[in-house]
Amino acid sequence: MHRLIALAGVIALAQPTAEFTPAPRYPTPPPVSYDVTALKKDPAPDVTYTQDKSCVEGRVNGDVNVKPWGQMGLNLEGARRFGRGEGQLVAVIDTGVNRHPRLAGRLTSGGDYVQSGKDGTTDCDGHGTMVAGIIAADDADRESAFEGVAPGANILAIRQSSKAFGAQKNGVPARAGDQSTLAQAIVRAADSKAKVINISSVVCMAPGENWPLVQAAVRYARKQNSVIVAAAGNVTSGKNSNCGNPNRPDSILTVPTPAWLDEDVLTVGALNEDGAPANFTLGGPWVDVAAPGTNNISLDPKEGASGLANRYVDGNELHGVDGTSFAAPYVSGVVALVRARYPHLDATQVMERIKRTARQPLGRSARDFHIGYGMVDPVAALTAVLPEEQGINPQPPLRSTVDIAAPPPVDNRPLTVALVGSGIALGLLALTHLAVRARRRRAT
Description:
- Helices cover about 25% and strands about 15% of the residues.
- By secondary structure, the chain is of the alpha/beta class.
- Strands 4-5-3-8-10-12-13 form a 7-stranded parallel sheet, sandwiched between helices. A 3-stranded antiparallel sheet has the order 1-6-7, with no helix packed on it.
- The longest helix has 25 residues, at about 420-444.
């Protein structure tokens, strides 16, 4: 039986005590240009790409009809008492999204930057389909316990990249997707009124290279009231997508984009089933929160499939549904739930609510390099009354720039209902609320 995230009883709102000043040794994004006029184009490939790899297929290892550990650890059943994300449009900028039955009637075409004549609802790589499933798959067939975080939300499918399609660019082999098409896709999603934009792809480049198009696009999207949720990036098998380890700032040559554009992006790290940072999650002072990133279940990514999968075959390699790519959509789903429940909050306020209601591990009070402010807490994000909403000005978040300590000891007692810990957090909030009211009575 899976050991679920053992954080019950230590849940608390992040109420930091001091302002963080970025250490000069860490790269910070340069000033942003707001002009996105050149990015407002109809979706189309920048060159003609040719498919040179077979499409992925889903696989099952064990039982996929059980409730996923991430679903239980986040207490999604408790969260859905407050809504299912109805009316929210979530853009998935990825490898496309196949028309799976569990997304029926809620999948909208957003455009294709890989193949001419396609509309974004073709996914040879399977990655975007699995991401979309974690966000919004329903359980209409009632044959399994799996369900997306926001099963009432709509998905806007934008196919921006593919490892299965390639071309020669200036005499150099290249895969479909670059910073220009990513920036165009972000602007298109924002102009399509997507309230949430999920980007589960990371490119690592030198900070000096600036990525001006993507910077402009993410700033534009936030100004258009879209919340961008981005994967932090993975470190695997000694190769790390060319990103340096931020715990050794003297070795940083590249940074993950768009993850490090922290002012405009909600960056998500990955947790394992013990509640510790997954061994592959790429850290950095820009990581905001974390979510389940290992042993996930989602939609079978094969085109025409109707079932579920917890593995997929890409070429001759078998992969699990693991990575910050699959942690980010949990947070995107929670953002959709929050936006449905609090339609008056703007994008920046929603991002702040997600961070302030995250669960901090025992013994930690500062922002952690790998999990940010902690594990996203859907119930708290949907029910908490933040101090500023009661007329109290909270102090700015404290962000740690020190090396990460070893993960806290794991409580192996199964966490089957996270409402225990959430109740503690809400009790603390109630006390805060009463204290504020008492203060106001004394003032009058």
